[in-house]
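I am hoping you can look over what I have pasted underneath with an eye to the fold:
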Amino acid sequence: MSSLTTKINPVVAAQNRDAYGVIEGLKGQLMAALPKQLGPTRYARILVTELRRNPKLMQCDPVTLLGSLMLSAQLGLEPGTGQVYLLPFKRQVQMIIGFQGLIKLAHQAGVTIHPPRIVREGDLFEVDYGNIDQPVVHKPALTDAPMTHVWCAATGEHMMPVVEVMSKAQVDLVMRSSQSKGKFGPWKDHYEEMCRKTVVRRLAKYLPKSSEMHTADRVDGNVVTAEDFDATSGEWEGEVQMIEESTDE
């Protein structure tokens, strides 16, 4: 374990596959970036656990690893909890914002996004956008039948309720337009979770957006590097790098 009293270079720590050293070296930036409601000790522990759980992250370009950790901290999203995923891809760290992360960011902006629901064959499912009080009726049959739709709703103190419904065909169209085309990554490994995220993202277009929501939308599926942060303030400067579509590692 790295010494607490020695100044640690996080880039060198990443090159040495030292998860604790990476977090300790970034401690100042990470803790300054964290929202007040997140405890710095707990958050640092979450990051160390995530790096040890997925050791391939330590084999990626260190500046992309550090950038993703710093921006996750600024957004207040916790890796490994469904809020944000850090995925090694072509020796870079790709940030994937989970639907739970989008729900959390919306909540911080005063909007409640209710849990997205999967509709399956055999469910009672009716949609009536003209019925403002109850635009959706969904009574699940509680089976593992194939999915037909996914839907989500949002409410807030100063807004009308908003509902978004997507058919499986509409979701699959989004999947086919992604970099993986559904052949690898979260679309292949966690299809229904990505369906939930897709409908939440579409719903979010109709909601008041905080700066954090705007940032999450920009970085989702892309790469952020440590060089994209202001040297004085430590704030992210809004730059992202697109992941190449090749599946070669």
Remarks:
- Residues 1-97+210-249 form one domain.
- The longest strand covers residues 147-156.
- The beta strands are 84-89, 92-97, 111-113, 117-120, 124-127, 136-139, 147-156, 159-167.
- The first helix runs from residue 10 to 15.
